[in-house]
Predict the structure.
Amino acid sequence: MLAELTPEIVIQMQRAATLLQAAPRICVLTGAGVSAESGIPTFRDKQTGLWEQYRAEDLASPAAFARDPKLVWSWYQWRRQLVHDKMPNPAHQALAEWQKNAESSKRQLTLITQNVDDLHEQAGSTVTHLHGYLWRNRCSQCDASYNYESTNHESTHLNSSKDAIEFDDELIACPHCEGYIRPDIVWFGESLPASAWQTAEQAAADCDVFISVGTSSLVYPATGLAQLAKQNGATIIEINPNPTLNTVVDIILAAKAGVVMPLLLEQIKLL
Ligand code: OAD
């Protein structure tokens, strides 16, 4: 895998590994790029098939749902179908192993994600979701949570809703108020869940090294976390094969996360 990297990236990776090996507190923010090698298209990739004519940004908003709830619900059901059998890739696995190693050596590795898939959890990580979770639903009117399991099978175990979810694109009415059920995802213009945001802000403000993996850094407030870390003295590392709008980066590892993350972890273990 090392052969896939340019000599410049290898040098930068060694620099990053030295810093990370000595850092007691690390904060990692992931975006859609970390799941790209698992086969999940990123947000700014052009959509395919039936959805080719739509941009994700135009569907993921309260205004879009108010205008055409069936269209937005169908899009999410399609995304769920696309994602439900996807597996963690070497980037998710390396992050999970690294988090476990950090725990056992009394260091801190806080993992924050903008992704709504569960690939970090599948790999064994503890992760804070800033933008919600694809497998959860709630009422667009009264906010009551709705899950297929509890409604259809009288169980309240939320995590199993992924297995029970049906990909039917018929709209569902809330059993309490008749409002339409929507995915429990943060849409453009909506606030982030308060406790997740607090965890993220604290981890970014307190860390020695902040790593941004597979995000275009286009969407606030998540993008502000790297700036917050930098203002508080952290070194900022970015892992992304493409240039981004992140202006506070100290070390750029311009390659795929699934290639860089396992190598970086190996380097850290060698030091
Ligand atoms: P984007 O789709 O904006 O950006 C994905 C980034 O991943 C790009 O910068 C790619 O260059 C990079 N990338 C692609 N393949 C990669 C790989 N194999 N390894 C590493 N990086 C790779 O996704 P996000 O930045 O996550 O919000 O988007 C942020 C938010 O905007 C999303 O959470 C979503 C979206 O609208 C909501 O739904 C609220």
The CA atoms of residues 65 and 72 lie 6 Å apart. DSSP finds twelve helices and nine strands in the chain. The chain has two domains: 1-40+88-131+192-271, 41-85+132-185. The two ends are 19 Å apart (CA to CA).
